[in-house]
Amino acid sequence: MLSRILPILKLNQHHSFKVTRMAHSIITKPPNILVQTSENSSPRLLEQVQSIVSPTRYVVYPIQSEQLISSPWAKNALLLIIQEKLESEVLEEVVTYLDSGGQVLDFSQNIEKTVDGYVNIKSESIANTELENILLNDFKIETCKESDAKNDYSYGYLVSSPHCLETFFRSKRLMETKNIVQSQITLDFSSELKQPSENYLPIKSEPSPNFDSSLYLSNLSTSSLGQPLIFVPVISSSMVPFSGGPITHGFTVVPQRQLSGHGRGGNKWLSPPGCSMFSIQIFLKTSSFLGTRPSLIQHLVALAQVHAIRRREEYRDVDIRLKWPNDIYFGNSVKLGGVIAKGTVVRDDFIVTIGAGLNLNNEHPTRSVNQVIKESGKDELEQEEMLADTFNVLEEVIDKCNNGQFAEVEALYYKYWLHEDQRIRIIENEDDIIKNVTVTGIDEFGFLKVIDDDKKEFTVFDDGNSFDMMEGLIRPKTR
Hints:
With 479 residues, the chain is α/β, with parallel strands linked by helices. 22% of the residues lie in helices and 27% in strands. The radius of gyration is 23 Å and the shape is globular.
């Protein structure tokens, strides 16, 4: 049988996700708006909310009534919208959410008494204008602006050293034509460019208006990672250019804005102005240390982002941390960024495509790296410098892992992670016996290791919930 791991309710204060470890940390709700749905409900309300709220500030998800009982949604929801009568068991969860400071917009009068954060609308349908006013006035939810609706795809701009560029254009996929045709988009490096579109990215060999190529290249010291780099002011998703055949080791796409970015489990990835994002392709020999443990790569990318900041003397004490498996936090309560990874095997190469995002300059939806840095009285970090140093660190830790120095990389990872001695509980599905266990680290594949009160150590995996991986972990059956 499988065993589910849930967080113990009363955590050690130093490592609690409910208690701020630093005096200046701020507990901030993730920007998720949840719309309760069922098999019998119409999708109209969900579609209305999605069309009304600012797409750079909030993510709107449907949530089934049964998920309101079974998944860790409450601490990850800014607003819950209900459109049907709820069963008493479900309603209890909603009331608990309200009691903890949550907000609910209810179209079915599930709660009759006055409750803080609760707004009841006696209507089966509502006009967009009225719904917009309620969201704005009662819940302070920002609505769409004219700039949010602009979907103008842009040219890409090529950034690379001359040597790397020469090698790139000699690669197999560019020897006959200067086009790379992928399943969802064509990358055009030729001199005869057409207008950009969702499935066509023309790439110019000239300086970008919004990215300092000289600053980036002067800080980049890698042999491969981070170049050639394509900077794209507007694209559907920075992962789209990698949809299809492999391009080359180190090839990188940096978007200024994504129109349809996606995170873990299909979650939408917000791309507010000022967010630093990239996608990069990494080739690993299947016989190498990481080639046999590719699940480690997402941890290394998150580590590289954090260490690129904190290894600088002036930022050493800035409390930017790692949350297992792939998130970056300020302190232990404010999410700053995350990482996703996709992989495939081609002959003797394991090819991993990484997508990463980090709040660098944007004040919303939570906080940003430069906000934190500025508050500590230090000079802000430029995106070009941070990206270059991230790739420098990433190439360094990949090389160390593949050359017998994994222990050194592992020690660096633990220096920044949030989970030292964190207590969690296991609920055995077979007989509902609850065990308290302690997080001890990660194994060589990046999975979470825990130890129970009988000193037995084992590994747990996430259950795929889309809200918080630390709140839904599974222990495989011991044979």
